[in-house]
Design brief:
- It contains 15 helices and 10 strands.
- It is α/β, with parallel strands linked by helices and 328 residues long.
- The protein has a domain at 74-99 and 147-327: Rossmann fold (3-Layer(aba) Sandwich), CATH 3.40.50.
- The protein has a 5-stranded parallel β-sheet with strand order 5-6-4-7-8, with helices on both faces.
- Strand 9 (279-280) and strand 10 (283-287) form a beta hairpin.
- It starts with 8 loop residues before the first strand and ends with a helix.
- InterPro entries: P-loop_NTPase (IPR027417).
- This is Aspartyl/asparaginyl beta-hydroxylase.
- It holds the Pfam family Sulfotransfer_3.
Length: 328
């Protein structure tokens, strides 16, 4: 198997292996990443009879060969977020335009960033190289007109901002956040796997595994969110990004975010992106319904107390920086 044999194929999963990650590939047959999340598109693609019969698996080194001989689009912008704060709306608005290739929480990227957790010998330099290869492979245009490439990372990838910056030092980034009580309520209502105690290395929450496992879901969520926000603020001090509050959406996509990513949209493109805002971005079959009041009302006293204890000070700092950015 050589890189030339994989033209038109996309890496979809990483399989741990003692000698290095193995990569599973899928042929998208022209299918664009327009679903809310990367895995939604992949689940649709793998059901095709061709992919059921002709699945490919290679060593990760083949990504390096592909990167050298046929590099993909260089990333136009990165989207980091606090979790449940409107980042999917941003990525879906961008994905509405056919010239944009948008990956939303791609599992293979997260697996590369987490590789050291299942094998400590995969140090930072190794993961940086693999990340560059993986992004290059995922950045292969699915259609000839695609020229812009955006990546929305998982929420906990805010912890990897320094490594990601070393891999792509010239790519502008944004961090989307929301009122912490609303974010915690949303996570408790539909708990993501990454918000389960132990999902994030306990050392990053300044505790051991036993302590993390004994935490209430509310406290674990609050402390994880605080770490994401803290990392965004810390990284911003050296490599400034753009902070976006949920309350600014969707209009900020056409102003500050467009400027930050050095884009320009025509009137018709803006109208096309705005159509996305009429629907629930995670379930486009439903109309969008504002939920701020409902989330605030659903918050328990414990949620409010933990939000104030762990996240509120960082939220206030994010707001201070954002307001300074808006005034420039």
């Amino acid at each position: 198997m050589t890189a030339s044999h994989l033209a038109g194929w996309t890496p979809i999963w990483i399989v741990p292996h003692p000698t290095g990650p193995q990569v599973d590939w899928c042929h998208l047959n022209g299918l664009r990443f327009t679903h809310p999340f990367f895995n939604d598109t992949i689940e649709h693609a793998v059901r095709h009879p061709f992919n059921l019969l002709f699945r490919q698996r290679t060593s990760i080194d083949l990504l390096g060969e592909m990167h050298a001989t046929c590099p993909g689009l260089h990333p136009t912008g990165f989207i980091f977020h606090m979790s449940r704060c409107g980042s999917t709306l941003v990525s879906q608005m961008l994905a509405a335009l056919p010239q944009n290739l948008v990956l939303s929480e791609a599992g293979p990227i997260d697996a590369i960033l987490r590789a050291h957790l299942w094998n400590p010998k995969f140090d930072e330099n190794q993961r940086i190289l693999w990340l560059q290869w993986m992004v290059s492979a995922l950045g292969q245009p699915q259609q000839a007109r695609q020229k812009n490439f955006f990546i929305k990372f998982d929420s906990w990838n805010a912890l990897d901002l320094p490594l990601i910056h070393k891999a792509f030092p010239d790519v502008p980034w944004i961090f989307v956040y929301r009122e912490p009580v609303e974010v915690i309520v949303s996570n408790l209502k539909q708990l993501a796997g990454k918000m389960l105690p132990g999902a994030v290395p306990p050392s990053l929450l300044d505790c051991d595994l036993v302590t993390a496992l004994l935490m209430s879901r509310e406290e674990y969520c609050a402390r994880a969110l605080a770490k994401y926000c803290q990392n965004a603020l810390t990284h911003h001090q050296q490599y400034p990004g753009l902070f976006i509050n949920y309350t600014q959406l969707p209009d900020v996509v056409f102003s500050s975010i467009t400027d930050h990513f050095k884009m320009h949209w025509s009137t018709s493109e803006t109208e096309q992106m705005r159509k996305v805002t009429q629907f629930n971005v995670k379930d486009p079959s439903r109309q969008f319904v504002a939920d701020t009041a409902a989330k605030t009302q659903a918050a328990s006293d414990l949620v409010r107390r933990l939000a104030d204890q762990w996240v509120r000070p960082l939220y206030d700092r994010l707001e201070t920086v954002r307001q300074k950015q808006s005034s420039i």
